[in-house]
Design a protein that fits this description.
CATH class: Mainly Alpha
Order of helices and strands: HHEHHEEH
Shape: globular
Radius of gyration: 19 Å
Structural class: mainly alpha
Strand order of the largest sheet: 1-3-2
Largest sheet: 3 strands, antiparallel
CATH superfamily: Winged helix-like DNA-binding domain superfamily/Winged helix DNA-binding domain
Number of helices: 5
Helix content: 40-55%
CATH topology: Arc Repressor Mutant, subunit A
């Protein structure tokens, strides 16, 4: 297991500060318990109505899902589609092309999580 990060350029205080700021911004936008789960569900299932999405993301309340969807829509990850020509009005949610740019991030996090869980099970960390 490698413990160092390979930077292309020497790590300066300014570059470190910029990197930390960028990571903080990313975590602010996609962090929390539910946002990535919602994004992944939308990417896997396509157009989803609210109640169906709530069933897929098990354990989330309607209020929290509504707030998370608003945040994700504001940040360009989710598009809300209203079919007002139907009665009753149908509202669907869909992931945007922009949300698909997170695929490599999600895959990297998934791989890291798998390795971390394996390390915990094997008790490779010093105590």
């Amino acid at each position: 297991m490698e413990n160092s990060i390979d930077f292309e350029e020497p790590l300066t205080a300014q570059r470190c500060s910029q990197s930390l700021s960028s990571v903080e911004d990313a975590i602010y936008v996609i962090g929390g318990k539910w946002k990535l789960k919602i994004i992944i569900a939308l990417q896997e299932h396509g157009n989803i109505r609210f109640n169906e999405l709530q069933r897929i993301v098990s354990g989330i309340s309607a209020r929290v899902l509504s707030n998370e969807l608003k945040d994700l829509e504001l940040n360009g990850f989710v598009k809300r589609i209203v079919h007002s020509e139907q009665t009753p009005v149908v509202v669907e949610y869909i992931s945007t092309d922009y949300s698909k740019t997170l695929k490599t991030v999600i895959m990297a996090l998934s791989e890291w999580g798998r390795i971390h869980k394996k390390n915990l099970k094997e008790d490779v960390f010093e105590k």
